[in-house]
Amino acid sequence: MNWSMTKPKRKKKRNESSPSWEFQNLKGSKRVRLIAERKTKGYTQAQLGALVGCSGSMISSLESGRLNPSLEVALQLEVVLQTPYFELFPDL
Predict the structure, then answer these.
(1) Could you give all domains of the chain from N- to C-terminal order, each with its CATH number?
(2) What is the pLDDT of residues 40-56, one digit of tens each?
(3) Closest by alpha carbon to 58, among 31, 92, 85?
(4) Which of 25, 59, 69, 90 measures 20 to 30 Å from 9, CA to CA?
(5) What's the rounded Cα separation, in Å, for the pair 49 and 81?
(6) Contact residues for 21 (Cβ-Cβ < 8 A; gap 6+)
């Protein structure tokens, strides 16, 4: 008997060229103004989240463009950072 202790090799998946594969890993644009305003005020993401009433991970998601702000969060960010909404979120 010819037994092997290694795992059998799996077949590689073919890379599809459909539009859904092209756009699968795209992320939203970074909100540079939001990041810049937070840093000029000297806040960390966690500190800004505490002032706004959300988590630091939500601030991170807002800055990276993965999330859009709710109305309450957007208004609080506008008050805390003293910057108009349309400057913080130009892509919305």
Answers:
(1) 28-88 (1.10.260.40)
(2) 999 999 999 999 999 99
(3) 31
(4) 25
(5) 12
(6) 15
